[in-house]
Amino acid sequence: MWQQRVFIGNMQRFCLVEIGSGTSAGDVLSMVDAQGALEQGAGIGGWMLWEISQDFGMERPIRSFELLSDVCGAWNTDKTVNLLVIKKTLLAPLLSPKAMPSASPVCSGYVQWEYKRGKWQKRWMELREHSLWLSKRDTGKDATFLCSLNNFDAYYVTRVHKAPKPYVFAVKSTDSLTYFESTSDYVHVFSCGESEGKNWLEKILLARSYVLYQERNVISGTAAGSLQRSGTRKQPPGQRPAQPLVNVSHPKADPMSAPIGFEPAAGSLLARRHA
């Protein structure tokens, strides 16, 4: 258990809240709201807690069911630059448990990828099987695995970035940087048109939500050996398969329970459990 400053809106105000191993972002919103701190606030949309990753110049909304011990546990303990901020966003309905997709979202298109700091390459990017793949051409024949949303999430880039296109976004690992040999594997930055960039962000955020739902409600909730694996799909030579989902601890009751009207995609892990 530790005490954490949670800033509100324009960061002129903050509340001090106690956070434990089972405290979710939704719990923090409830605690701050109970103090009357959310009665007034500029902006449109619903309130969400945000991770402000100032060490990398980016930020993301934290889903109400995410545990803050996981979020804050990935921060660099040698630096005290990262923050938690509550602010309004139009993404709130999209990232609520009720909006959980019945299948992992897919998306594809050309983006500019920062393969080295300040160096960009045009690449065809695909979001499939809750993973990101890059290839030189839209045929996808030379696709190479970039990262899995099992441990990566989408971020808005807030630091000024010299990029070939007007909109910049990123995917960054939700694990500690200490697990990576190079920062280039820890965060991936992309540039494209504004409408395309916003669509990519939403699709990646939803795909990450889908992964979290499977981890906490299907895989960890299934007794060992009771869920049979489907036959492994043969990968083309040179392609690395998407990283598998891993077990996580059981969440508190209910923030990630199946929303009303949720219909899992046929043949998915969710469909097997709900059958």
How would you sum up this structure, described in words?
The chain has 275 residues and is α+β, with helices and mostly antiparallel strands. The protein has five helices and twelve strands. The N and C termini lie far apart (39 Å). Mean pLDDT is 83; it is low at 223-253.
The main pleated sheet reads as: 12 strands, mixed
Strand order of the largest sheet: 2-1-5-3-4-10-11-12-6-7-8-9
User: What is the first-to-last residue Cα distance?
Assistant: 39 Å
Low-confidence stretches: 223-253
Number of helices: 5
Provide the helix percentage: 10-25%
Order of helices and strands: EEHEEHEEEEEEEHEHH
How would the global form be characterised?
Answer: globular
User: Which percent range describes the beta-strand content?
Assistant: 25-35%
Radius of gyration: 19 Å
What class, by secondary structure content? Answer: alpha+beta
| Strands, total number | 12
Mean pLDDT, all residues:
83
Explain briefly what this protein structure is.
This protein is α+β, with helices and mostly antiparallel strands. 19% of the residues lie in helices and 30% in strands. The protein has helices at 25-34, 68-73, 183-186, 194-219, 269-274; strands at residues 2-8, 13-19, 46-53, 58-62, 83-89, 107-116, 119-128, 131-135, 144-148, 152-157, 167-173, 187-192.
